[in-house]
Design brief:
Radius of gyration: 18 Å
Order of helices and strands: HHHHHHHHHH
Helix content: 55-70%
CATH class: Mainly Alpha
Number of domains: 1
CATH architecture: Orthogonal Bundle
Distance between the termini: 64 Å
Structural class: mainly alpha
Shape: globular
Number of strands: 0
Length: 216
Amino acid sequence: MTKQEIINETIDFVKERMADDSSGHDWWHVYRVWNMAKKLNKKEGGDLFIIEMSALLHDVADWKFNEDEERGIQLINNWLEQFELSESNILRILNIIRNVSFKGAGVKDKMISIEGMIVQDADRLDAIGAIGIARTFAFGGNFGSPMHNPEVKAQNHSSFEEYKNAKGTTINHFYEKLLFLKDRMNTNAAKEMAAKRHNYMENFLKQFYDEWDSIK
């Protein structure tokens, strides 16, 4: 089986798995991350096959959608093994997927490969800007988070467990994650794109508070 055939089968697998998502982690999120990762690859290099497979599968094992993240990792491992990929390539893909997610403002990123950095940047670019704002409110609504409560303050989570178990508001999510992402981009190409999207979020928040305060 060719690499393109493996990618095509993986696309169908992810489409089916993400078909009913309404939290901003649907197939179209994966599609945007996949295509952004390919775009970054043209400027930054790296093994394109590893990048594409990691981007396509990056949310399958996400802790937010699995009772146990390791079960998601095992599902991906089983998916990859059927194509008789080398153990090295499977481990490279799984390592990217394990470390791609933001795990708290006080938690350092562990991505070391250029392929992982590209996939992480592509995923983070989709979390900011206009699409990022839309996804944030979709996620908050899906998981029952209030839009805004001035009495609930944003937190600077120092561990993944603290971040994972936090119950905050959608607006606080900007201060707990999204506004950090510009400075956590790995590649120069992503840093350039992130600056514009970051400014858009700041302007949105200013407008949001102007409208919120106008009712006082």
